[in-house]
């Protein structure tokens, strides 16, 4: 994917912060924790600053990161670290994933195969040069386990590390298979693209301890993917048919959950800023606004019957909207995209019935346009997490209440379309119930979703100026015989103001201001425990560009991004510090430099702040700049 410079104007704005379905009780500990920020320690050491501009001779790479809560791991007991992959994604890596055999670790320190307390992955990438942001995807035995993307590198080197808890993929890690990473990169001297991605992926396996038992994960994981042995495995979807995987469940299945990975790419990278078709003619084609509206639903279907939906969080990649906003601090989700769960347990009777020769699960996207309803394209994949019993499961769906969503588009314009506004609202509720006879007895299963969505946009200057505020709120719950097995309550507001007024000027440019919040209380259905995340980001920046027309290069830019992040998790099956964990962070960057970074909470040491020698202090860094061979712009941006 790369920045849609020519294609879109965005914009933005604010965000109505509605906490929606996340309860005040869930949110309070996060807000209280954030208020307990410790006093700053350490002072900036500017003389040891990291290099940023092309003529800088220092060699320490700029630390770049997405804020994440590190995995909760046993504090005592043994563990082992295994290198899964070392690979350089450079010339020729486009469409050519790295594939290596995977063998479960057998050293005593790792713990018994398949009985680990936790598994974490460390993905570290180093890059030096110039590059677009690229999507990265990691698969274990053809099932996606991580969707990531790249930093915008610097001429003097960038390094970024993300740690991810992958314990719930234990059934895959317990078997021999292969590990595949697709990080399709483009090296092209004519586009000045020379940054390769030097990737190290390690896994750490933790043996169970008294306080930290082996969690109950699924018994079996089936990929929902194109199953190609040598290519990337997500479905690159550009039709309303979506991507279908034939599925054969063991007939003793007691529970089955679908985990979904999804992201918009190309003309769908900024789907939430796309314009309803009814209003596209208000703008000249040169503005490059994209149609089919801003509302997107990702659907999970069993044998063509809707089983549940995802109203996704908008991940902004590091080249997104205004690239200078996201180096060295990315938007939430850029290096570890959120995933979503649909309980397909109510459909086990259908998946096990012999009336059809085979059964399947489909992942598809529905937008607001016509045939197809969305633009090209979305990348969809997932997996089915199955728990089995000791006897054949039977049963039937007793309630299937899945009405169409209510989607409304309104809008208007001033005389001559000088200013245009649009509003899209959507609501959906569904409820699916089954009665199952399983090895564990009779189970009444109830899966429900309630979702609401609003997107308001306004445009000026023929569409070169855009403001959009979108909020997606919802709750997904599932109970099995009255016991809650899944709960996902979220509010995702995003506001974007973008200004491309001077985009097509000699030495023009573009800028944006963005607010984005991710508030989510999640009890995932496998692995035990639950957590709540509250991430609030504000970013503002601009990019100056060289000659128009021609191949536009960014020649300078500024960007400032601030983020507060709070995380709490609880797992009553664990003792000691692992029962309740917290992670808080207050971080800011400006002009390619770290302004401040404070981390507190029980997990601080697992993901500490950037070291003092990377902190520039209040003024931030010098910002990105490239020499322009003596030319002088008519107007700066
Ligand atoms: C972002 O939020 C700030 C603080 O609420 C507000 O002043 C600003 O207008 C917002 N900007 C956008 C683009 O949402
Ligand atoms: C979005 O919210 C911001 C800040 O509240 C506001 O200034 C702007 O007008 C809003 N934009 C739209 C299209 O409603
Ligand atoms: C790099 O060049 C810029 C102007 O081109 C100059 O201001 C700056 O001092 C130089 N930096 C170093 C480290 O030489
Ligand atoms: C992650 O991996 C990198 C490279 O292998 C290593 O330098 C770094 O220390 C690791 N980080 C953690 C927290 O394990
Ligand atoms: C890639 O990273 C490894 C480990 O950090 C290092 O040994 C190697 O020299 C790097 N290669 C390149 C081409 O940067
Ligand atoms: C991928 O595998 C298929 C089937 O084994 C083979 O036909 C195809 O040539 C392979 N493609 C590449 C790029 O290796
Ligand atoms: C899925 O099953 C159907 C019906 O048996 C079959 O026609 C189709 O080829 C299968 N698809 C794949 C990808 O195996
Ligand atoms: C204004 O926009 C509408 C579409 O919303 C379009 O049909 C109409 O032709 C436009 N009028 C002008 C004067 O551009
Ligand atoms: C999926 O299964 C349904 C029901 O058997 C069938 O109608 C449909 O054709 C299948 N889809 C694909 C792509 O095989
Ligand atoms: C639909 O969603 C909108 C926007 O979130 C909300 O204001 C409205 O109350 C919802 N309507 C229903 C019927 O849920
Ligand atoms: C970016 O470069 C242009 C052209 O040289 C110049 O006019 C403008 O002032 C520069 N902006 C910044 C922030 O350096
Ligand atoms: C867009 O940016 C230009 C250049 O900085 C500025 O003159 C103009 O006022 C901006 N427009 C808006 C609506 O902010």
Automatic annotation (TrEMBL):
In this chain the Peptide N-acetyl-beta-D-glucosaminyl asparaginase amidase A N-terminal domain maps to 76-401
Q: Which InterPro entries match?
A: PNGase_A, PNGaseA_N
Keyword Signal attached: yes
Superkingdom field: Eukaryota
Q: Please state the span of the N-terminal signal peptide per the UniProt entry.
A: 1-20
Sorted keywords for this record are: Signal
User: Does the keyword Hydrolase belong to this entry?
Assistant: no
Its protein name is Peptide N-acetyl-beta-D-glucosaminyl asparaginase amidase A N-terminal domain-containing protein
């Amino acid at each position: 994917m790369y920045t849609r410079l020519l294609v879109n104007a965005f914009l933005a704005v604010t965000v109505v912060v509605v906490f929606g379905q996340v309860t005040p009780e869930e949110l309070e500990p996060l807000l209280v924790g954030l208020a307990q920020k410790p006093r700053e320690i350490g002072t900036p050491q500017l003389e040891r600053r990291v290099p940023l501009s092309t003529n800088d001779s220092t060699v320490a790479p700029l630390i770049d990161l997405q804020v994440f809560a590190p995995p909760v791991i046993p504090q005592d007991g043994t563990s082992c670290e295994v290198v899964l992959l070392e690979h350089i994604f450079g010339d020729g890596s486009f469409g050519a994933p790295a594939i290596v055999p995977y063998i479960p670790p057998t050293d005593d320190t790792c713990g018994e195969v398949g009985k680990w307390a936790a598994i974490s992955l460390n993905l570290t990438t180093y890059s030096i040069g110039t590059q677009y942001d690229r999507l990265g995807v990691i698969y274990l035995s053809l099932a996606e386990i991580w969707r990531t993307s790249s930093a915008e590198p610097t001429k003097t080197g960038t390094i970024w590390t993300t740690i991810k808890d992958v314990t719930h993929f234990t059934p895959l890690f317990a078997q021999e298979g292969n590990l595949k990473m697709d990080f399709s990169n483009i090296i092209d001297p004519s586009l000045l693209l020379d940054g390769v991605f030097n990737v190290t992926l390690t896994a750490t396996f933790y043996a169970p301890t008294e306080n930290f038992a082996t969690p109950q994960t699924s018994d079996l994981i089936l990929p929902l993917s194109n199953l190609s042995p040598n290519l990337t495995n997500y479905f690159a979807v550009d039709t309303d048919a979506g991507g279908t995987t034939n599925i054969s469940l063991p007939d003793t299945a007691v529970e089955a959950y679908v985990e979904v990975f999804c992201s918009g790419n190309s003309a769908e990278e900024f789907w939430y800023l796309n314009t309803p078709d009814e209003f596209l003619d208000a703008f000249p084609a040169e503005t490059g606004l994209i149609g089919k509206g801003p509302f997107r639903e990702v659907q999970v279907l069993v044998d063509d019957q809707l089983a549940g939906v995802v109203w996704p969080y908008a991940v902004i990649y590091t080249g997104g909207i205004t690239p200078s906003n996201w180096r060295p601090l990315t938007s939430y989700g850029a290096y570890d995209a959120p995933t979503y769960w649909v309980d397909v347990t109510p459909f086990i009777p259908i998946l096990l019935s012999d009336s059809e020769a085979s059964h399947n699960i489909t992942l598809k996207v529905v937008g607001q346009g016509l045939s197809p309803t969305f633009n090209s394209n979305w990348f969809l994949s997932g997996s089915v997490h199955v728990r089995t019993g000791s006897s054949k499961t039977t049963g039937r769906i007793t309630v299937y209440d899945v009405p169409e969503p209510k989607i409304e588009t309104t809008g208007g314009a001033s005389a001559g379309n000088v200013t245009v506004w649009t509003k899209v609202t959507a609501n959906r509720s569904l409820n699916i119930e089954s009665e199952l006879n399983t090895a564990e007895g009779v189970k009444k299963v109830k899966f429900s979703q309630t979702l609401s969505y609003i997107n308001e946009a306004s445009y000026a200057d023929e569409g070169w100026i855009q403001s959009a505020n979108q909020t997606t709120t919802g709750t997904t719950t599932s109970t099995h015989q009255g016991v809650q097995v899944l709960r996902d309550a979220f509010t995702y507001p995003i506001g974007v103001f973008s200004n491309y007024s001077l985009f097509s000027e000699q030495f023009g440019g573009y800028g944006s201001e963005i607010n984005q919040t991710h508030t989510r209380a999640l009890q995932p259905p496998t692995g035990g425990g639950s957590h709540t995340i509250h991430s609030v980001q504000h970013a503002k920046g601009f990019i100056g560009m060289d000659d128009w027309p021609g191949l536009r290069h960014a020649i300078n830019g500024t960007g400032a991004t601030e983020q507060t992040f709070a995380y709490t998790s609880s797992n009553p099956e664990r003792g000691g510090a692992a029962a309740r964990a917290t992670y808080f962070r207050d971080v800011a960057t400006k002009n390619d430099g770290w302004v401040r970074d404070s981390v507190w909470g029980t997990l601080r040491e697992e993901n500490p702040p950037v070291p003092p020698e990377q902190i520039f202090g209040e003024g931030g860094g010098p910002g990105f700049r490239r020499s322009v061979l003596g030319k002088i712009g008519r107007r700066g941006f």
